[in-house]
């Protein structure tokens, strides 16, 4: 998991956060052990901003991956994924461990089902 968290830390350095100044990096581990990263990318029209977690997951999907084992998120103070990202993590990853690290390397692990209990998902669309 060290490798995954370190990749997210590297991604955090690429964050484009001129408005909030809150840089976030994320990295996802695919079923075939590939690590794919992403950072938050902000827009002057704030609502168009894409969080690091979704950037990483959407990049992974666009590169042909659809099965994920773990996700790492790094930011300065160990902030956890926003509500929108929780939904996307659940939809694309199911119940995986999410490792959240602050800038000092203090890591906590939480399952995505704990982040989004009683989720709305594809089962409701049957
Ligand atoms: N942000 C993320 O990248 N991930 C989250 O789950 C929380 C929020 C970003 C969005 C915005 O660029 C900045 O952090 C402040 O909200």
Helix amount: 25-40%
Structural class estimated from helices and strands: alpha+beta
Instruction: Please give the number of β-strands.
Output: 5
Distance, first to last CA: 35 Å
N-to-C series of helices and strands: HEEHEHEEH
What is the CATH domain class? Alpha Beta
Parts with pLDDT < 50 across at least 5 consecutive residues: none
Task: Give a description of the structure.
With 126 residues, the chain is an alpha+beta fold. It has one domain: Cytidine Deaminase, domain 2, CATH 3.40.140. It is 29% helix and 22% strand. It contains four helices and five strands, in the order αββαβαββα. The chain has helices spanning 2-12, 52-62, 83-93, 112-115; strands at 25-30, 35-39, 68-74, 97-101, 107-111. It has a five-stranded mixed sheet with strand order 2-1-3-4-5. β3 (68-74), α3 and β4 form a beta-alpha-beta unit. The longest helix has 11 residues, at 2-12. The model has no long low-confidence stretch (mean pLDDT 98). Tetrahydrodeoxyuridine binds at residues 17, 20, 22, 24, 40, 42, 49, 51-53, 79, 81-82, 85. Tetrahydrodeoxyuridine is lined by residues 17, 20, 22, 24, 40, 42, 49, 51-53, 79, 81-82, 85.
Ordered list of secondary-structure elements with their pairings:
Layout: H1 2-12, E1 25-30, E2 35-39, H2 52-62, E3 68-74, H3 83-93, E4 97-101, E5 107-111, H4 112-115
Parallel strand pairs: 3-4
Antiparallel strand pairs: 1-2, 1-3, 4-5
This protein binds tetrahydrodeoxyuridine.
């Amino acid at each position: 998991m060290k490798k995954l968290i370190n990749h997210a830390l590297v991604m955090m350095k690429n964050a484009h956060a001129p408005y909030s100044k809150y840089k976030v990096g994320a990295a996802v581990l695919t079923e075939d052990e590939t690590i794919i990263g992403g950072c938050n990318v902000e827009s002057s029209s704030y609502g168009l901003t894409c969080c690091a977690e979704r950037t990483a997951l959407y990049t992974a999907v666009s590169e042909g991956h659809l099965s994920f084992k773990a996700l790492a998120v790094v930011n300065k103070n160990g902030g956890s994924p926003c509500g929108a990202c929780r939904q996307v993590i659940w939809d694309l990853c199911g119940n995986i461990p999410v490792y959240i690290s602050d800038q000092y390397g203090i890591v906590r692990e939480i399952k995505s089902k704990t982040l989004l209990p009683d989720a709305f998902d594809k089962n409701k669309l049957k």
